[in-house]
Amino acid sequence: MTFKYKNVYINETSTITGPFEAKGPLGRYYDKSYHDLYMGQKTWEQAESKLLEESVELLLTKMDKSKQDIDILISGDLSNQLSSTNFAASHLSIPLIGVYGACSTSCLNLAIGANMVEKKQVKNAICSVSSHNSAAEKQFRQPVEYGGPKPKTATFTTTGAASAYLSQVVSDIKIDSATIGRVIDMDMKDAFHMGAVMAPAAAETIMTHLRDTNRLISYYDLILTGDLGKYGKEILKGYLISEYALDTKNIDDSACMIYDLEKQPVYAGGSGPACIALTTYGYIIDQMKKGKLNKVLIVATGALLSQATVNEKMTIPAISHAISLEVSK
Amino acid sequence: MTFKYKNVYINETSTITGPFEAKGPLGRYYDKSYHDLYMGQKTWEQAESKLLEESVELLLTKMDKSKQDIDILISGDLSNQLSSTNFAASHLSIPLIGVYGACSTSCLNLAIGANMVEKKQVKNAICSVSSHNSAAEKQFRQPVEYGGPKPKTATFTTTGAASAYLSQVVSDIKIDSATIGRVIDMDMKDAFHMGAVMAPAAAETIMTHLRDTNRLISYYDLILTGDLGKYGKEILKGYLISEYALDTKNIDDSACMIYDLEKQPVYAGGSGPACIALTTYGYIIDQMKKGKLNKVLIVATGALLSQATVNEKMTIPAISHAISLEVSK
Fold this sequence. Notes:
The first copy, chain A, is of the alpha/beta class. The first copy, chain A, has helices at 19-22, 44-63, 83-92, 105-118, 133-140, 194-213, 229-244, 254-257, 273-289, 307-311, and strands spanning 2-4, 9-17, 32-33, 73-77, 96-98, 124-131, 156-157, 160-167, 173-179, 222-225, 251-253, 270-271, 295-303, 318-327. Chain A is globular and about 50 Å long.
């Protein structure tokens, strides 16, 4: 399902990260980074909620607005029952739409927000996501201190929060369209190979988007997937080449960009809702404003597993949502 | 934040429940009920996912439509990472927006769907929720077999799934407006008194709705809260009386209607996203079609706790979203 927009702009973004992201190749593109994972809080969950709340407050500061000026907050994270979002929202006091798409959440948020802004149902919307490495490890696998080994196909949950302010006020970055994906289940069960789990969903949504918009793959300067990682990216490319004879040279993956895969202990790359959001709101938008990119398709991907479903040996479905951005003329 | 609609209708609904709900006062209003909680599946989670999937399929049958005819599915449930929704959606193959508002999810879904239908961004939308007593107990507290005692203020998670089909095709039931709530945290920590946790959020959203629509409380024949339960309902009424001098005689609560609180072992009443959805889509809409109710405000309420936040002794925030329905003239 693809929506087209004429009057939706990203007026501002904010990005706040943890230490691994600050030391990564895109470190200089973030607004703020913490040097430890507790960020002055008692628990990982509270640290993540603080990140999310701070990212919204920073965004408001950059926009010279107050919480009362915001019509709607659309937010999601990886935590059970979106607890990071909930506590942040309880302090922010902005009407809240809580959403979950795992690591695809940022594009889901933007789609919902853009839909409402386009039709003037709201005058503005803030779209936010967060994730936290230690909180995610504790929730989905084991606490990091457990020291459990992982295979090379595993990914490393990004610690950070990223927010975007949307409105009809014209700015450099226009949201051109959004494609809401379908859940794809390829009977995969390997919770340590999220790239393989999500690549089919990314392919599905990319092809749906191109068909719905009647565009060639070459229309975009960059098609950026969320967190397929080193191996998932190759699986996606291989599939698009073999199945559709497509030239995939403009496809890259934020999981492979947000960290130095050679030097940082991040296995196959980043993951978590913050991965593509930090990359996009920090780096990609910067490149667009500098004229180095003009039309970009952001393809966030989510693996829809839970601790219970993995323990019960169920398959891992995936979903992907896409947003196309272009430099405003 | 309140949205007003001119052209959004609920064309059809479907309701499928577990055994406790079938034996409750509204049993005859549901489309289908199961006599056990496994429903032919191996796990509680799979049973809940099956319920959700079946409720959508039943809705399609009632509408004489196929999955390919549906533009968007907006769904949420109580399970970690919305696993019930995800597996159901993987079989349904309809573009999915996954949302989470705990027991407020049904009104959140309807608001998102109504927004898109009103502005013709989609021609139709299916809004679904589910919950399952045994799955919820296992996830939030302990497996039922543990036999842990509970205080009388505890509520009983409803087992069921409910879906609604929305479009601009005129039918008996019109969606008149939607109010998206804010997260309210009153520093409550009692995970066995959800009524007290959620009543403030319900009050907040009711008052916001009335102010935004410029309506008196008496405008509505019925204001139906989600699952405040026996004690939460009295807390809400007491607050509205003492704080706003309001006549609360038209306020009732689905948690108190869906079960026989005297005869069934359900403590203070029902809970879970399915509670208000089953009551509304099964019973309330039936009463509206029969002319016994004309204007109804559905006020779904959610307690935003997780197992981790309770274990870490954090407070329990709450949220409430509202939908006003009226008989179409």
